[in-house]
Write a structure and sequence with these properties.
By secondary structure, the chain is mainly alpha-helical. The chain has a domain of 97 residues. The longest helix is centred in the middle third of the chain and has 23 residues.
Length: 371
């Protein structure tokens, strides 16, 4: 069943990708190529691999031409993906030569003043690109340069925290979404979790390690507070997929830093998740909305791997997977969303993992969205 559906999804992306000119990672050609690269690697489908390369190069050219700044469609986001492909050996290119101009763009961009919202100036997308480049480059000189710029990003985060950034961003979202406490909470959660996740990727590089660890402790405290005291949903209230995803994003972010950052959150968070509407194959629609279904599945499946003695996460992941497959099949006679978020590419990655029983390492995208 999955194999036939995967072939259908791959064929749609290969024939309909020109329905959008969006180059981005979440909504456009870069996200489509992510699925096609992994599909080609798993199935040996050369045509899919060729299409993936064409999409990625066209996305890169479009992003350079438009000079977009957001991780969802900008040069750092696409550059991050090139580094991802090199790291996991999905493409054979000289990353240093191809990404030299992207490096310059990012290095220059880091010097600019960022807004009080860390992500608004692309700080985290640029920082995440730099971490990916550190792993993909073979040049010792380039590693030193990248280390210095990453250190400046850490400095910027430290400065923002001294200026009270987490409280400022919280008040900003509370004021902007005064009629919807849940939406305000989701935005706060996503932004702060993205900062924490970025810091976890920097930790192995041993750059400014004492400062990074102090920032991680402080950020983890904010995340625990968002879950334990500020979460606006109580038992019996309606919730959405996005609130579910945000809770899981906290859990995933803190897990990446190690169990010492979870504190007493582990059991409490599971209790909160159990308060949400059930999600079996008959009641999955109770998780209202279509927000990030592929990413929700990815988070649930990662929790299932981390807690193999519990069937809860696996059952929820399967329920979301089945619901997503049903929705996509309903859309197929028309022209569906093609992107990674809410679309064909994201569904393809979900089904590819299910078919091969092999985790695909695209979880970085989950927390880059906070930028």
């Amino acid at each position: 069943m999955y194999a036939n559906t995967l072939q259908q999804l791959a064929a749609i992306l290969q024939t309909r990708h020109n329905f959008t000119e969006e180059p981005g990672l979440l909504y456009g050609h870069t996200g489509m190529s992510l699925f096609l690269f992994y599909y080609a690697a798993q199935t040996g489908n050369k045509t899919a691999g060729d299409t993936a390369q064409e999409l990625l190069l066209s996305a890169y050219k479009e992003a350079v031409k438009k000079d977009k700044r957001d991780v969802r469609h900008d040069i750092p986001g696409i550059g991050w993906f090139f580094s991802h492909l090199v790291r996991y050996r999905l493409i054979e290119i000289d990353a240093d030569e191809l990404l030299d101009s992207v490096d310059t763009f990012v290095f220059d961009g880091i010097q600019h003043r960022f807004s009080h919202v860390l992500g608004a100036g692309g700080l985290l997308s640029k920082g995440s690109y730099l971490v990916a480049r550190y792993h993909s480059t073979t040049s010792g000189y380039k590693k030193v340069m990248i280390s210095e710029v990453i250190a400046s990003v850490v400095d910027e985060i430290k400065t923002k925290f001294r200026q009270g950034w987490p409280d400022t961003i919280g008040k900003t979202y509370d004021r902007y979404y005064s009629n919807s406490p849940l939406v305000a909470w989701q935005h706060k959660t996503n932004s702060i979790a993205a900062v924490f996740y970025f810091l976890t990727t920097v930790t192995p590089l041993q750059i400014y390690l004492p400062i990074v660890r102090r920032l991680m402790e402080e950020t983890a405290g904010y995340l625990r507070n968002l879950c334990l005291r500020e979460y606006p949903i109580t038992a019996g209230q309606d919730a959405t997929r996005s609130s579910y995803t945000s809770l899981l994003r906290i859990y995933h972010a803190l897990h990446t830093g190690g169990n010492n950052y979870l504190g007493d959150l582990d059991e409490t968070l599971i209790t909160k998740l159990e308060q949400l509407p059930p999600a079996d194959k008959n009641t999955a629609p109770a998780l209202k909305g279509s927000y990030q279904p592929a990413m929700l599945y990815k988070l649930l499946s990662m929790m299932a791997i981390r807690q193999p003695d519990s069937n809860q996460w696996k059952e929820l992941a399967i329920a979301v997977q089945e619901q997503q497959l049903l929705q996509i099949r309903k859309q197929l006679p028309t022209v569906p969303n093609l992107g990674l978020q809410q679309g064909i590419a994201g569904t393809g990655l979900v089904l590819l993992e299910a078919l091969t029983a092999q985790p695909i390492p695209w979880e970085d995208v989950l927390l880059l969205q906070g930028d």
